[in-house]
Design goal:
Layout: H1 9-16, H2 20-29, H3 32-82, H4 88-108, H5 128-141
Helix pairs in contact: 1-2, 3-4
Amino acid sequence: MESADGISYKALSAKHGVHEGTVKQHGRDGEWVARRKMHHDQTATKALLKTQEKLSEQAAQVAFDAQAAATKAANVALEALDDPALPFNSKDAAIRALLEALKLLEVLSGNPDTISDSTVRLKSELTHEELLRLQEGTRLLLLDDGTPNGAEPGGGGAGGGGEGEA
């Protein structure tokens, strides 16, 4: 009998100067074939688990990086909205960018449908009070770490259907 590695009872008997029948008998008594198969299976399982763990770590890092980027984008949009000299069309663009960043944060927190309207457009310039309410509401959604307010692992997140006017 020969293994996948090319090791045979005949090769073992020649290497150790023992009769081939003796090696075969020890192989049967010691269940060498079954033990070798079990060892190969365990090694393959360990390798698979390590690979899956590494892929999970990489996916988590990508999600963390995406969350940090979305938080940064939301904060940049908020800063742009704070500028009273910003033209109306730039405010519109900042609000759309803010909404997209908030939608991404919601998806990353496990709540893909809580903010779903991506077609929000301003019909007229916001009053100063409306702009302040929008900014404050958005700031309440973001914690210092960029996690949507109230988000918990596996769901939770900020409520609302994204149906109000901007």
